[in-house]
Amino acid sequence: SYQATYQDMLGFARLNRGKIVTETMPSVAKWRWQKFVRSLRLDERVEFGEGDIGLSGGIQVWEPASANITTVDMIRRFGGSTSPAAQWPEEENAGDDEEDRFDRMEKLIEKAMKRMSSGSKGGKKGSMQGSSMGLSSSDQGGGESNSIHSGNE
Fold it and tell me: Residue 46's CB: how many other CB atoms inside 10 A?
């Protein structure tokens, strides 16, 4: 498919750029490389969100909030000592299977909605060509069906 070919093309382009960088590195002066590393400011902490100072050693990249929608915060913070000997606090919802099932169901619904909305954007993807599913015997002579085809039948 076009998407797979495009992903392969991007991968090969990155590999080629990596090869060029590794071949060029020996010709870069040490002082110039050190100046570049200092300009990255990898020793400064990277801010996760407003007032949430995170880890050092990263490069902050801004993206629109709609690019990767998350409904559950994946970073869990606990107050107290950071000693490895200290015991982790119990989670409030430990073993809450009903909540997990609801989350999985919500994700399934989101995926289904994405598939349905992407299939209705005009292309042949998800169309009913060659199928009589959803048609009565009087409708099978021609015309289109309003049924949804998931591709799993």
Answer: 16
**Cα–Cα distance, 112 to 110 (Å, whole number):** 5
What long-range pairs does 73-80 form, CB within 8 A, spacing at least 24? 75/48
Q: Is the dihedral of CA 109, 75, 55, 47 positive or negative?
A: positive
Numbers of helices and strands, H then E, in the chain: 3, 2
Distance CA 115, CA 125 (A): 10
Residues of the chain by 3-state class (helix, strand, coil), percent to 5: 40, 5, 55
The pair phi, psi for residue 53, each rounded to 5°, is -75, 125
pLDDT at 48: 76
Q: What is the pLDDT of residue 15?
A: 96
Pair of tokens at residue 8: 């392969």
Is there a contact between 127 and 149 (Cβ–Cβ < 8 Å)? yes
pLDDT at residue number 53: 79
Q: Supply the pLDDT for residue 133.
A: 47
